[in-house]
Design a protein that fits this description.
Structural class: little secondary structure
Distance between the termini: 42 Å
Number of strands: 2
Radius of gyration: 15 Å
Largest sheet: 2 strands, parallel
Strand order of the largest sheet: 1-2
Number of helices: 1
Shape: globular
Strand content: under 5%
């Protein structure tokens, strides 16, 4: 489904209310939708349902996707720099040519994800992050988070 900017603003506002515990809020469900080139910079979509979404060439700079279901999402050529993707389901997601610099991938499930040509310099992961088979995150510049608590 294609959205007008105004439609997305309504969805994001309702999701914010949902996250705040407001009974008038509604969890965002963008599963299977096409958000080609959309600007989601600094938006909180934590816990959103987004399986199979197309976010090709989207701007997700500092977007909060903590715990979001992004299984089979297509991020081809998106900018995800500094995004928070902790505990997100990214299984089978496509990250070809994606900027994932400084992204927070702690606890994320990236099993069977396509990470070809993804720029992961400074991306943070931990012992709970699940990677595609035979993938070496340190070889592409990702950084293992300290096990110390702040």
């Amino acid at each position: 489904m294609k959205y007008l900017y105004e439609d997305l603003v309504v969805i994001f506002n309702l999701h914010r209310q949902f996250l705040d515990g407001n009974p008038a809020g509604k969890k965002a469900n963008l599963s299977g939708d096409d958000l080609f080139g959309v600007n989601l910079m600094d938006i909180d979509l934590s816990g959103a349902e987004m399986a199979g979404i197309s976010l090709r060439r989207a701007l997700l700079f500092r977007t909060n996707l903590t715990g979001a279901n992004l299984k089979r999402a297509n991020f081809k050529h998106a900018v995800i720099e500094g995004a928070i993707m902790k505990d997100a389901n990214l299984k089978h997601a496509v990250f070809k040519g994606v900027n994932l610099q400084l992204a927070d991938l702690r606890g994320a499930n990236l099993e069977e994800a396509d990470l070809d040509d993804a720029d992961m310099v400074g991306a943070i992961y931990d012992q709970n992050t699940r990677w595609p088979q035979n993938f070496d995150p340190q070889a592409v510049g990702a950084v293992l988070a300290s096990t110390e608590t702040a």
